[in-house]
Design brief:
The protein has 28 helices and 23 strands. It is an alpha/beta fold. The longest helix is centred in the C-terminal third of the chain and has 31 residues. The structure holds guanosine-5'-triphosphate and magnesium ion. The site of magnesium ion (MG) has 6 residues, from helix 23. GO terms for molecular function: GTP binding; GTPase activity.
Amino acid sequence: MDVDPRHYEQIAIKDSDIHNIVLSYLVHNCYGETLESFVACSGMPEPADYIEDMEKRKGIVHCALEGNSLKAVELTEQVACDLLENNKDLHFDLLSLHFADLVCAKKCTEALEFAQKKLTPFGKEKKYVEKLEDFMALLAYEEPEKSPVFHLLGLEYRQHVADKLNRAILAHTNLPSYTAIERLIQQTTVVRQSLNQDHGKALRILLPPHGFGLRFVHGKITVINAFTSVKVVEKAVSCLMCLLLPAFGEYQIFAIKRLSYYNVSYHCEANSIVDWSANSASCPYLMVLRCIGSLSVKLMGRRCFARVLVDRIRSGLFTCLKFDTGIITTSPYKMTAPFQIRIMLSIPATPSSLLLSLHSGNDTLSRPGFLSNRHSFSRVSKNFEPNTPNSRFCRITCRLAKAKETISTTNPDSLIKEPHKYFDQVIVTVRSGDGGHGSILNMPNQRNNNNGSKGKQEKRSRHKSSYKRDFHGSLILPVGGHGGDVVIYADEGKDSLLELHNKSRFNAKRGGNVDAMGVLTSQLHNGLAAPTLRIPVPVGTVVKRKRGMLLADLAQPGDEILVARGGQGGISLIEAPEHRKKRLMTLTTNVMRDDSDKVLILGQSGEEVSLELILRVVADVGLVGLPNAGKSTLLAAITLAKPDIADYPFTTLMPNLGRLNGDPTLGAGMYSSEATLADLPGLIEGAHLGKGLGRNFLRHLRRTRVLVHVVDAAAEDPVNDYRTVKEELRMYNPEYLERPYVVVLNKIDLPKGRDRLLSLTEEILRIGCDEVPSEPKMTSKDAVHSFSTEDGNADKLPSQITNEDKKDKELEDYPRPLAVVGVSVLKGIRVNEMLKEIRAALRKCRDSHEALEPSTKTVRAM
Ligand SMILES: Nc1nc2c(ncn2[C@@H]2O[C@H](COP(=O)(O)OP(=O)(O)OP(=O)(O)O)[C@@H](O)[C@H]2O)c(=O)[nH]1
Ligand SMILES: [Mg+2]
């Protein structure tokens, strides 16, 4: 049947189609409660006729599943008296389930009696004989679970029989025994299979009821955009899954797992599901989502999804959702820490995973262990929160290893842009090269002088000429080449550790071996040393052993550190003539020497180390403040940086840098006061305990000289916000509060901010003391020390950090701000004043620094 696929590009999927599909699925699987809420939300007419039947069916299937198959038989006979009579297969299966239950319960005599009475009559028909034999075999084993016919005791078999029973009853009541969605999936599978078989041929297929559009282009079969059936399936499945969401636990993860390597196009689907929410009023699914508390999100471990979520939550569309910021990761592909998702809805990758997923609803039929028999969830744990009236959350904690990179390469256009170029922490493994091997060499003309071959003689004399002697006359024997060292160095050309995320293993080359035939040429008597492997990192990178000590702080361009030393080359030995060897061995006391001299000859192996590289932004000014205060907007207003700006918290996930031009009032010297600004992610209360984005990014403040506190003057309680940020800084490192800082009261274009400006300024100026702030006087040694303590404590609670100052000092005991300026960075109001204050603070810093310099110089001179 030939059909022009373009016909399908325009087809719109009717909501009523989806509703019917969903409804039939719910009826089929006896999801009563869900059915009711769905009917209420979607405005579908309630299929009242089915409800009563459904309840009965539910009871029967439940009995079959729960190991009460005789009861199931009895109930089935009540509902449909001739069903089992006409369907002997099903009858046999149900009875055999009971038999299996008796065997499991070690009631062998009873089982035997039951089999004789109820099962053996089936043996008259040949097709049951084999089955009967299998069941009887169970009796022969002491541990039937370990017998070859163990599957008869498994949950899967029980499930299979229960499904069969369910379908039979449905068919008996003139309902389709397969749901619409199952049929659609079957069709999709058929089409996919035929695509696989017939690739290479032009292929156009149409299958009822919605049709598939496939196109043959340049030797490839392309599924055209309007792949209607698939769309229908996806939409219906999405809807179903959110209906059944609270029932999902580990199963959902299973589906998600599958998803992680699924087709790129589902990226789009994830978005389109989110798009439904745009017109929430007309979207019944969304209402369902609202009442159940679930939302579609594709779990790719990418921040962009988290962002979509936050956006939706903030716009009030998903009132019952909560967002755990733990989902945010510092690396583009890896979840670095366990994260939590409370919201999930996905389209499983394959029809079978879809069915498995959908089957796992516990609305009526809970089957613990159904999947876990076959799939490992070792990295998944889950816990359920108590249901609240409006929402039922299913919280899942999981760790996702790696999203397939194929997804990012196959169709980059379809991916959402990764907005941040900055990745500030990475673990790399480096290995230095092994040393080259030495060799055991023949001493020419020492043996076999009776060997008459002319060629060999020549060769020997050539070898002889290549031996060198030192001035004592001893032979200089060649040594295996030194293995390559690994050096990490600060390179001005690099601005992020991103590349190291893509390649996290570095191996230096091994040293050259001494030629096995003889020796190296005289120039190479030290063997072939392998080149040093030099790894460039951005200036400001701190190199640590993984979970260990600090090795170096590459703060200046060109700073470098040798992180792994190459192995030494093995030495070469002259083979002693047989008759002298014994004597030599007894004479020598060198314990390293063994019979074959291997120990000395083999090159040393290189070292392998895992290193943690942490980039600390090198900036003069650090912007701090609560999320949404306008830090990124400020950076964009006064520098050429283009950070992401949006009205939801945690838009900024990694620091953004911008360059501040020099002070124009200085004329020709304007460039001299050029400074770098770092816009940091928002801080929230409890950040030091890991809330929000945690506190790790605060390490970037380490190298700043001046802080700018950005406060949203139009917020509820700006002074409290200001105190919160200060408190968090204090908990992280009290020394930050001693740095010169400027407070920027932002958003004064809003009436709320403008009206309170004066009072806010006064209140803020009241917090703190008059002590003249001075720049922290850190020697490089101090700095290294403080880096190591800071990082060493990174995972500990601050309460564990003993710091007397922290305990004793109140916020009021730290210096006041140098200035408080009201601005609107968005509207450009008083930005120049603010710049003036920032520059003044920078100048002040520089002056005090210069004032310090001479004294240090004199100390050195003395
Ligand atoms: N009215 C007004 N809105 C502003 C002003 N400055 C920033 N905004 C808005 O405030 C919102 C947050 O701005 P961002 O610059 O992203 O805030 P942020 O502090 O970087 O936020 P995080 O990155 O989440 O920490 C955006 O919608 C801005 O448009 C301002 O001066 N006036
Ligand atoms: Mg920001």
